[in-house]
């Protein structure tokens, strides 16, 4: 079982907001997604070192900065190599499946996906054309839904395994060299993967830019009011949360929580709150 350690990944956002022709949260002329435009990632690189054909025939590219992520995680967490690699691989799998959820939602609506990229700062899904606001509602929400589904399935699987382990008495071990029931290890790893996916789902639904929660808030407001008001309200809510973000991170990190050290842009949300973006 990997040792319980903190997960810390640094995200430094750009101040560029992903509004473009084709509607709110539409893509720029080269149709790159919000993640690529909204984040300046300290681990980001543009040169893929490995590429394979993923589900739905979508190219998946791996950035060289993943090695930096592993090194950084080992330095911060102080975990042994094997445990750290397990946790990093689980985190990357959860991020990949999150992006695959976005990609699937794009494909089923006729928005072709150019590629999915995984790198040291996370991942992004790049489309070949702009998506309408209605299409983007489904695209945005599918990422967190995938993580929530994985959290539920892994939690149920771990619960089922623990029930069997306790019923069989396998949980009680006598002696240092007593054999360990492999179901215990599997249940522990399922719990860990469930925890990672649950955290990513909740984290991504926080209503700040460029997280999915910020996009969903704006898209919902577009259904209720006009575009300028929707942007201002989204910006004001995001501005309040951005100001509170750093002391919140310090508190949770001090409590030993697992965090993604993401810092939302105060200037970006301030500009939105004033209606300066279009």
UniProtKB/TrEMBL annotation:
Record localization: Membrane
Keywords on record: Hydrolase, Membrane, Metal-binding, Metalloprotease, Protease, Transmembrane, Transmembrane helix, Zinc
Transmembrane segments: 66-97, 138-162, 192-212, 233-251
Record's bilayer topology term: Multi-pass membrane protein
GO biological process: proteolysis
Residues annotated as domain Peptidase M50: 88-157, 185-243
Pfam families: Peptidase_M50
One MF term in the entry's GO annotations: metal ion binding
Cofactor: Zn(2+)
GO cellular component: membrane
Assigned protein family: Belongs to the peptidase M50B family.
UniProt-listed PANTHER family: MEMBRANE-ASSOCIATED ZINC METALLOPROTEASE M50B, STAGE IV SPORULATION PROTEIN FB
Protein's UniProt name: Peptidase M50 domain-containing protein
Organism phylogeny: Bacteria, Pseudomonadati, Pseudomonadota, Alphaproteobacteria, Rhodobacterales
């Amino acid at each position: 079982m990997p040792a319980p350690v903190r997960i810390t990944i640094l995200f430094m956002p750009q101040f560029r907001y992903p509004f473009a022709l084709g509607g709110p949260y539409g893509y720029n002329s080269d149709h790159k997604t919000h993640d690529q435009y909204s984040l300046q990632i300290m681990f980001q690189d543009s040169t893929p070192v490995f590429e394979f054909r993923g589900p739905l025939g979508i190219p998946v590219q791996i950035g060289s900065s993943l090695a930096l992520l592993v090194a950084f995680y080992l330095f911060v967490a102080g975990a042994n190599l094997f445990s750290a690699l397990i946790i990093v691989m689980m985190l990357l799998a959860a991020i990949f499946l999150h992006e695959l959820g976005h990609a699937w939602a794009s494909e089923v609506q006729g928005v072709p996906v150019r590629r999915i990229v995984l790198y040291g700062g996370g991942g992004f899904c790049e489309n070949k054309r702009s998506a309408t606001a209605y299409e983007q509602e489904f695209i945005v929400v599918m990422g967190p839904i995938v993580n929530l589904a994985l959290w539920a399935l892994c939690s149920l699987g771990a619960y089922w395994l623990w029930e069997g382990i306790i019923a069989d008495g396998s949980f009680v071990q006598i002696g240092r060299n007593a054999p360990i029931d492999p179901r215990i290890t599997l249940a522990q790893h399922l719990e860990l993967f469930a925890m990672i996916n649950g955290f990513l789902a909740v984290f991504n639904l926080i209503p700040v830019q460029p997280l999915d929660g910020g996009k969903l808030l704006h898209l919902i407001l577009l259904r209720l009011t006009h575009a300028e008001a929707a942007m201002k309200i989204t910006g004001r809510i995001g501005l309040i949360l951005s100001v509170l973000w750093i002391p919140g991170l310090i508190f949770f990190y001090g409590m030993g929580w697992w965090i993604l050290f993401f810092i939302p842009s105060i200037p970006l949300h301030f500009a939105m709150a004033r209606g300066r973006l279009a």
